[in-house]
Design brief:
The chain is of the alpha/beta class. It contains seven helices and seven strands.
């Protein structure tokens, strides 16, 4: 199974995880919904650069994150994203190489993290439309989709930063359109649940 954590990944979660929790004070709900093994895609909304940190500190599994290739183009950030095992994605086109790299992780029983919105939400929309990459990869590999919803502010000792993981589900016989709609509504529902 492809689940060997890079050294910097292990070090980061061990050292920076507690600092992240102490500083931002996130309330994490439903982490037990993340399967301990088997192929999974951890997918949710995207509001901040640190969104992926919640998944990293919520499971002992190694999560291979898909990140925009611009992070790999800059010497300041490239070393870090390469060292923690991220997959670069060229968002200007349909990046077959990135997709195949992620599929390889899933076919080996690993975990992939991505944001179906494609980029951070800086719009007035509650949730941006989802791209089809997550449901397409889940269907091809029979991986579980593990949805999550993030709401709140990234402030010191935040009072409202909440991350809620939902029940995992498979695409199965669903058409991609139907599966993507289900994923979108599930993430939207988790976000709304946070705000109650």
């Amino acid at each position: 199974m492809m689940n060997k954590k890079p050294f910097l990944y292990r070090l980061g979660v061990f050292l920076l995880g507690p600092i992240f929790k102490l500083y931002y004070n996130p309330k994490i709900i439903g982490a037990e919904n993340i399967p301990d093994d088997g192929p999974i895609l951890i997918v949710g909304n995207h509001i901040h650069l640190y969104d992926q940190c919640h998944a990293l500190i919520s499971t002992k599994r190694f999560i291979t994150y898909m990140a925009k290739k611009e992070y790999f183009d800059s010497k300041k950030t490239a070393w870090f994203f390469k060292s923690v095992g991220c997959i670069p994605v060229d968002r200007s086109k349909k990046d077959e190489h990135a997709t195949e790299s992620a599929l390889k992780v899933l076919r080996n029983g690993g975990a992939v993290g991505l944001f179906p919105e494609g980029t951070r939400n800086k719009t007035d929309l509650f949730l941006q439309p989802f791209k089809f990459g997550a449901v397409s990869m889940a269907k091809k590999t029979e991986a579980y989709l593990v949805p999550f919803g993030i709401t709140g502010d990234y402030k010191f000792r935040s009072k409202n930063l909440i991350v809620r993981f939902g029940k995992p589900f498979k695409v199965g016989d669903m058409e991609l359109e139907e599966a993507n709609d289900k994923l979108f509504k599930t993430v939207e529902g988790l976000m709304k649940e946070n705000l109650k």
